[in-house]
Design a protein that fits this description.
Blueprint lengths: L11 H13 L4 H10 L6 H27 L5
Length: 76
């Protein structure tokens, strides 16, 4: 995935992890903050919300692109 992480002080892996945790599990932004804190990644819930607002459209576009291209190759 090629995203514009310019001017962001965190690594793309941390941002991806936070967004995936928010999407995959029924967590609030405050609840996403806790498991990251246990992994010694100290972020605020507002930071997770900012990442969600900024990067989730790019993640969704990538998922849609993979789904469209991958569905034609699917066989039962």
């Amino acid at each position: 995935m090629q995203y514009s992480f310019r001017y962001i002080n965190s690594s793309p892996e941390v941002i991806s992890l936070a967004i995936i945790m928010y999407i995959r599990y029924p967590l609030s932004f405050r609840q996403v903050e806790n498991p990251l804190f246990e992994r010694e990644i100290n972020i605020c819930h507002e930071t997770a919300r900012y990442w969600w607002n900024r990067f989730s459209p790019m993640f969704a576009a990538e998922i849609r692109k993979r789904h469209v291209h991958g569905s034609s190759d699917a066989q039962w």
